[in-house]
């Protein structure tokens, strides 16, 4: 054929600088694009063969990737349908864009959208190459063709010497991108983007250890698994298969708790496997462990905004041909197919969890501590998931018993409803540190929940808004008779003068604790109730806890912690102190307290029970206790 020269048909100055500039941060995707094109060409040939449109031998369809560092070339070779001279001219030389100038102006800041919307994946090769050659021979047995372009609009088409069907794309790597001539870099990209492509991809030869050194064999090194686990039928697979695949995806991790095999044909096509990983309690979970594929071609593992927020905690693979291969994250987040897929995955996750709960509740309860962060996160961020999860969300008591929301309501409703008809859910976030408060509640016949997870306080706030006339209160937020008021508690029958003296006496013996304030309250409790209890207001403490995890609540983080010291005026030791202070002036109360081992001891015991006695104050308490015992 005669050599042909011309300009690529795009009616703008030059598309190549735009591709180089705006795709530079993600320029490694060129290899994905070219290998994906090779896979498409190969699969089309297989389709034509099955339909009888191609009657020749398919032969070995392996796609080969090769590097020649001496020539500075990277070559992608396939044995697919190839192209005729007419097709080369049509597909490589005519970027048929109406209103091209407006189009490029609109998308100039989002080159992924340029490639994704208008099939320019081949041109991503010019991000790394100063010249690209395409040598191709069509399955139609027409003469081979060579296309050459140096990254300007000019191209050359000429006859080529190629006997076998298929296409070779030869990239002459430019000086700025020599890293793409390194074997390790190409292996990394192939593993990242092409690990599960449906056509075998060969890069180099396999090696074996021989005579004390590694030597190449004659066998191709196939880098991909053409039939990954998610593409197979669940009925063909065993638990060991799923566990092995998980270890392949995430080496050196614990076994997953459960998994869900997605296999949908209508109204969209979706396959994949999602795993519930075992998370360590109170450790920030790693997001973006879900890999998003389109026809086994890797798209991204940054799935926030594409799948529901709580599902970003899961691990695994989602694959759908209905997800565009080359588009920006903003496009994916607004794409209707992606939204439908996202909703469907949420439903499948809820179905799976409910199924396990119904059919194997002991296993579900056993794994609850690991599962609850997923479920609570879902309930907090997805209204539809909340509606489903009410059935299998569990509450755990300090006795390690678990209940559904409805079961627990039934358990406590008769005894933990206050005089105003509000159901009180008592909870602790540390059953060791708050033992005395829990014990006081149990002496009243009350049950106490253990809410010690990262999201428990957030869930408690949500449940208060969802459950009718219900309130969650931490066990140390007040004295137990005040938390669940069965009747109005009488105020202590002491004068303002007595209160003033008691305040001064107790306050003078408090250690200085940074960003902590104390106030005093006096209640006529039973004689056997502790002389002093320290409580912290539920609302303010909860706001500070939530502020630690949420932006925009810094106001609460900066506020000091406020504690109330509840003094039992019916306790014999408090009565003794009140008697000793009788008739004294305010300024004498502090002097009296400094000489009173009992006052300092009572204050320190209250602080100690709240894990607030530390450093020098704790050391002094121990010495004083020893002195008291030895007398």
UniProtKB/TrEMBL annotation:
Keywords: ATP-binding, Chaperone, Cytoplasm, Nucleotide-binding, Stress response. One of its GO terms (molecular function) is ATP-dependent protein folding chaperone. Transmembrane segments: none annotated. HAMAP family: HSP90. Belongs to the heat shock protein 90 family. This is Chaperone protein HtpG. Homodimer. Residues 26-177 form the Histidine kinase/HSP90-like ATPase domain. SMART domains: HATPase_c. Residues 1-329 are annotated as: A. It is found in: Cytoplasm. ATP binds at residues 33, 37, 78, 83, 167, 329. The gene is htpG. PROSITE patterns: HSP90. Molecular chaperone. Has ATPase activity.
């Amino acid at each position: 054929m005669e050599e042909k020269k011309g300009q690529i048909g795009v009616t703008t100055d030059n598309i190549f600088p735009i591709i180089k500039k705006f795709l530079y941060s993600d320029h490694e995707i060129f290899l994905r694009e070219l290998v994906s094109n090779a896979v498409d060409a190969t699969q089309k040939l297989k389709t034509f063969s099955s339909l009888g449109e191609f009657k020749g031998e398919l032969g070995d369809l392996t796609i080969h990737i090769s590097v020649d560092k001496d020539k500075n070339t990277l070559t992608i070779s396939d044995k697919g349908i190839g192209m005729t001279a007419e097709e080369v001219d049509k597909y490589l030389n005519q970027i048929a864009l109406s209103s091209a100038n407006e189009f490029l102006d609109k998308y100039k800041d989002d080159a992924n959208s340029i490639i994704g919307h208008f099939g320019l994946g081949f041109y991503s090769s010019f991000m790394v190459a100063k010249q690209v050659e395409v040598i191709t021979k069509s399955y139609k047995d027409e003469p081979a063709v060579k296309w050459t372009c140096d990254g300007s609009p000019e191209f050359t088409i000429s006859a080529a010497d190629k006997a076998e069907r298929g296409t070779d794309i030869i990239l002459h790597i430019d000086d700025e991108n020599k890293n793409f001539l390194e074997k390790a870099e190409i292996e990394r990209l192939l593993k990242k983007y092409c690990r599960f492509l449906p056509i075998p991809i060969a890069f180099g030869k396999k090696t074996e250890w021989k005579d004390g050194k590694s030597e190449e064999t004659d066998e191709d090194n196939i880098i991909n698994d053409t039939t990954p686990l998610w593409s197979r039928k669940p009925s063909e697979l065993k638990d060991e298969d799923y566990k092995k695949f998980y270890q392949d995806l995430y080496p050196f991790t614990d076994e997953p708790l459960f998994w869900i095999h997605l296999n949908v044909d209508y109204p969209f096509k979706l396959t994949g496997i999602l795993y519930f990983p075992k998370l360590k309690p109170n450790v920030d979970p790693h997001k973006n462990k879900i890999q998003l594929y389109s026809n086994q071609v890797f798209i991204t593992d940054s799935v926030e905004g594409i799948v529901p927020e709580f599902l970003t905690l899961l691990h695994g693979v989602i694959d759908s041909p209905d997800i565009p291969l080359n588009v920006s994250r903003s496009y994916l987040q607004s794409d209707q197919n992606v939204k439908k897929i996202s909703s469907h995955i949420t439903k499948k996750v809820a179905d799976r969890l409910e199924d396990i709960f119904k059919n194997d509740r002991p296993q579900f309860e056993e794994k609850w501590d690991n599962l609850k962060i997923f479920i609570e996160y879902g309930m907090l961020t997805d209204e539809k998931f909340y509606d489903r999860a009410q059935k299998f969300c569990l509450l755990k008591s300090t006795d390690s018993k678990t209940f559904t929301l409805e079961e627990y309501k039934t358990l406590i409703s008769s005894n933990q409803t206050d005089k105003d008809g509000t159901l009180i859910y008592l909870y602790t976030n540390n059953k060791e540190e708050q033992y005395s408060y829990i014990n006081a509640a149990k002496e009243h016949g009350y049950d106490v929940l253990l809410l010690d997870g990262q999201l428990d306080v957030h869930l408690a706030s949500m449940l208060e808004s969802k459950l009718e006339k219900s309130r969650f209160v931490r066990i140390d937020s007040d004295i137990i008779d005040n938390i669940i008021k069965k009747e109005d508690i009488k105020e202590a029958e002491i004068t303002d003068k007595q209160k003033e003296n008691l305040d001064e006496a107790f306050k003078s013996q408090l250690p200085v604790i940074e960003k902590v304030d104390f106030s005093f309250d006096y209640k006529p409790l039973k004689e056997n109730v502790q002389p002093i209890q320290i409580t912290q207001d539920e609302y303010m403490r909860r706001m500070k806890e939530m502020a630690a995890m949420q932006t925009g609540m810094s106001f609460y983080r900066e506020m000091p912690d406020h504690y109330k010291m509840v003094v039992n005026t019916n306790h014999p030791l408090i009565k003794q102190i009140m008697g000793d202070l009788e008739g004294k002036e305010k300024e004498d109360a502090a002097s009296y307290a400094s000489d009173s081992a009992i006052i300092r001891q009572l204050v320190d015991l209250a602080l100690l029970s709240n894990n607030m006695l530390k450093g020098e104050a704790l050391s002094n308490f121990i010495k004083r206790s020893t002195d008291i015992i030895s007398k």
